[in-house]
Amino acid sequence: MNIVFVNSTRKWGGVKTWTVDYATELAARGHDVRVFGRQTELIDKLQAAGIAARQIDFGFDYNPLTIGRFIAAFLRSRPDVVIGNIGKDINTAGVAAAILGIPVIQRVGLPGDMVPSPRLRTLHAITRPWMLCPSKTVADGVWNRLSHIPADKVKIILNSKKPVNTIKPVGDGPLRLVSTSQVNVDKRHSDILDALSAMQTDSVRYDIVGTGKLLEELRERHRSLEEQGVLKWHGFSTNVQAHLAEADIFLLPSENEGMPNALLEAMATGLIPIARDIGGIGEIWPETLADYLMPAKAGPDEFRIILERLMGMNKTQLNVLKEASVQACRDTFNLNTKIDEFETWVQTNILKR
Fold it and tell me: Can you name the residues that pair with 334 across neighbouring β-strands?
């Protein structure tokens, strides 16, 4: 297949990680893959992986110049399908694809990202997109919010990762904690930081990878944790895997997720996950780790209690939990299996129509 991915967002998020994963794996399987994006880091990462990636300026919504440029690019490369994410992807590249009769897939992160309106209905009437959802929870949101989308054009394929062959055993010294999401209000890093402040312990190290609107405020508020050597801020990184490889426990206190790539990547690496039961997280969470799936309204005290429980375990017990985490990836959200599913769906349901 000849596949084009389009992403006009300015900051790194889960959909970009998904794009890199899918583009890389599909190209490795012999498909012709191209990516158009705005963010420099995305283009650099894809090009380093050998993917044909091009940086462009999208301009305003429905920009006729941008649409024309996509028409020209598509006429040259003749894609079988164009995959976008947010509205600007669809109202530029999606419109260009529709003009040329190329099927459009809209990969939905959260159904709330699309606000029902006459304008959205018109866009979908023009582009006739297939909706690709990373969880049943997200698909339910699409069905409930966007009644104009035919039910048979909504597909659920769980976000997925490649599992490691073997876990990295817990080492000597403090337990290593890590979070790799944007430092914004809805990600609720503050709950973990408040929990660690209440514990007053130097038996853990917490690495936060990412940046966002709340970073400086949280850093100032929890300066003492940095001074104690408990907390380290790493800022933005496109090499998240290097940070995961050094950790034992992954923390996702977020209160707003669909099917978070960051969590799946951590579990695929064999980290013990702690997360709130929100969005589609429960769809991939194994029964063996049920104690670490926190209530949606959990606060700092609940996170403190679960961290103290883990700190009281020996290495053997912790390694059993790490193995349970990566086994969930092998069984439920293995990238190879999900790419198989994606290929079959596109070839059978979209290209043969």
Answer: 161
